[in-house]
Amino acid sequence: MNEPAKAIFRVYWFGLDQPQDIPVQYNPTEYSFDKSAQIGEVQIPGLDAPLQQFVRGNAEKLTLELFFDTTELGMGAGATSVTTETDKIYQLIKIEPKRHAPPIVEFIWSHEMAGTHIGGAPGSVAAALTQTVSGAAQAAGAAVGAAVQAAGSTGAAAQSVVGPPLGSQRRNGFRCIIESIKQKFTLFSPEGIPLRATLTVSLREYKRLRDQLLELHLSSPDRTHVHPLQQGEVLASVANRYYDRPSEWRPIAENNGIDDPRRLTPGVFLTIPPLT
């Protein structure tokens, strides 16, 4: 029988080149996520209900209970305190002198954490269709006519299965800072040494600005964009990035005076016009 995988806290201590993995003593029996969005209301006289306006997302929270026990090492004189285990977690809410804040942490248990399959599970029919779109978009540069039509129809099929392209927001761990730790000690030796404890740990999602911009990949088809053309890129792939439709490469070509979409110069800046 295989040994169960241990949940770990991967700690990114300030100034260290490699993170430190701190395994829990016993895996949690359950954990819960809490994600919410801030919604504003636009009051318009005469309407039955106010209009709802998305303002921003709120930091996601992960809450879990961890059990610790050192009774197997003895319960009498000279017993080992359970704090030798609990303090490994408790220290993660303490302020690092050089960071002036607690360390950045990532909770990892398995590759099937909630959020792993956003935008279609890897290896699923949805993911395969998404990959087909990308391949068809690149092939369109060599044979613009038929290939672009194929990419467009394939993209529509993938969109119906996958929905919006959210694959960049998948995760296999929960990067966070420790928001709170509640320690409950329930068993003691005759000398008063704590031997058993339960920690209730609340983790608050941590994301840097740069990471969020790369992850969200925000794009507005109704606005003008400037795109630096990369080596190997074709107009169909550029259209797929900004419009989610590789077949809409022609407005880009017309707006930038491109007569032959198969002959592109890397490094030039393309003006991506809004779709009307």
Automatic annotation (TrEMBL):
Q: Which domain of life is it from?
A: Bacteria
Q: Which residues form the Contractile injection system tube protein N-terminal domain?
A: 20-110, 173-211
Pfam families under this entry?
A: CIS_tube
Q: State the InterPro entries in the record.
A: CIS_tube_prot_N (IPR045361), LysM_dom_sf (IPR036779)
Q: What is this protein called?
A: Peptidoglycan-binding protein
